[in-house]
Amino acid sequence: MPQNAQYGSIQFQEKIDFFKNKLRLPTATWTDIWQQQHAKAFVVAGAMKDDLLADFQAAIAKGISGESTLEDFRQDFDAIVKKHGWSYNGGRNWRTRVIYDTNLRTAYAAGRYQQMQQLKHSRPYWQYKHSIAVTDAREEHLSWDGMVLKADDPWWDIHYPPNGWGCQCYVRTLSERDLQRKGLTVSEAPETVWSEQTVGVRTNPRTVKVAEGVDAGFAYNPGKAAWGETMQQRAYDEAKTKFANQKIWQPMIATTWQDYDRPQEIPLKPFELPDGFDVSQGKVQALKALLGGESKVYQIAGHPVLINAEFLADHLKDNRAGYLPMMVQTLEQPYEVWQSFEQHKVNGVVTLRRRIISAYEFQGKSLYIVLTVDKGVLTGWTMVPAKPKQLNKERIGELLEAME
C-alpha cells in the first residue's frame, strides 16, 4: 500500500463499504444530526423523502467507486432534482460540490482509517499532511503539517481529517524505520482549544463546542465512528452465536440522563381522557379522530414525526387503544426527546432512533410513555409502570429536547 496515498488516488473496498452501509436519513438542515452520527447516516440537507435520498446516494456511490466525476454527478443531480421536483437552497455548482466532495473525502478518510488500523502493529505512527493542492490554506492545518503522533493518540479522535469543508488534509502511516530514515520524532499532541459556536442560525439553531482549527461538525474521526469495537468481526461472530434469531439492539452512543444532569425520576403529570374520545369503533377510527385525519406530522425537537393511523393501529394491541390520547399528548408536550444510533447485534444493521418520553398519573396508575421514531415515522410506543430503573434504559444517546 502506498505510504502517502491521498484522497482520490486509489480505490479500495473499505471506502465503498463505509458509504454503502450508511442509513438514509431525511433531514431538514445540516445540523439535524451531528458529527459522529454522520458516519452512519447519509443525509442531504433539505431532502426529506427516502426515494429522493436513494437517488442521491446511488449517484454519489458511483463517485465513491471511481465510476464518475463531479461533472457527472452534476448531471445526475439535475436529473434527480427534476424527477422529484426538489427545491434546494444555494447555487447549483456550490451545492453539488459540497455534497459530492464532502461524501467522497469522508468515505476515503474512513476507508483509510480502517486500512491503517490493520497496519498499526508494524506502522504505529501517523503523520498529519497538508495537501499541496490547496492554495487557500487554513493556518492551523499548515501548523499541523508533518506532525507525527502515535496512532492511538486521542488527538486523532478530534483532528483526523477532513477537518472542515473542502479540507484536503490526510494522514499517512510510518514505521520505526521510517522515523529513523526521515529524521522524524514523535511529538506531543497540541492542546485542543474549545469554544462555543451557534450553528444553523436560520433553520435549526444549536450551540455546540468547536475545536480551534476544525470547522463546526467535523471534530470527529469518521473511520473510528464507523468501525468501532462493536463493529469488529470478532464481536459480530460472538453476538451472532449468543443472540441467534433474537432481535437485540445495543446503543452506539453511551451518554445517559446522568451525563445531562437530568432527574432520575420523571415527574408525573395528571392526565384525563378528552371529552368525546371513543374506541368502540376501533383503533383506526379512534386514532383518526385524534389526529384529525388519516395522518399528521408533528415537529418535535426540530424534526418531523409522521403518524399514520392505519400503520400505527396495526402495531397497537387492543388493550392499549384506550391510552391513545396519552400518546398524542406526549407528542405535543414531551418531557424529553433522545436520539441514538443503535446496532443490531446479530446482523449489524444500524438505525437512528429517537425516543419521546413523558410520564403520567392516570386512573390511579403511574405510567411512563416511550414513543419510538424510525426514519421520521412513529413506529411504536411502550407503556411501563413508573419505575425509574426500567425507564432510564431508554434515556440514552443525545438529548435533543428537555422540559425543566
What does this structure look like?
With 404 residues, the protein is of the alpha+beta class. The protein is built from 13 helices and 16 strands. The strands form five sheets. Strands 8, 9, 12, 13, 14, 15 and 16 form a seven-stranded mixed sheet that branches. Helix 2 runs antiparallel to helix 3.
Concise overview:
By secondary structure, this protein is an alpha+beta fold. It has 13 helices and 16 strands. Mean pLDDT is 84; it is low at 1-10 and 229-240.
- Integer-rounded radius of gyration: 24 Å
> Judging from the principal axes of the Cα atoms, what is the shape?
globular
Strand content: 15-25%
* Fraction in helix: 25-40%
Intertermini distance: 54 Å
Integer average pLDDT: 84
Number of strands: 16
- Put simply, the count of helices is 13
The profile of the biggest β sheet is: 7 strands, mixed
Class of secondary structure makeup: alpha+beta
Which H/E pattern describes the elements?
HEEHHHEHEHEHEEHHEEHEEHHEEEEHE
Low-pLDDT runs: 1-10, 229-240
Layout of helices and strands:
Blueprint: H1 13-20, E1 23-24, E2 41-42, H2 50-64, H3 70-84, H4 92-118, E3 125-129, H5 139-144, E4 148-150, H6 155-159, E5 170-174, H7 176-182, E6 194-199, E7 206-211, H8 222-226, H9 233-242, E8 249-251, E9 269-270, H10 283-291, E10 295-300, E11 303-308, H11 309-314, H12 324-332, E12 336-344, E13 350-362, E14 365-374, E15 377-385, H13 388-391, E16 398-402
Parallel strand pairs: 1-2, 9-13
Antiparallel strand pairs: 3-4, 3-5, 6-7, 8-12, 10-11, 12-13, 12-16, 13-14, 14-15
Helix pairs in contact: 1-4, 2-3, 3-4
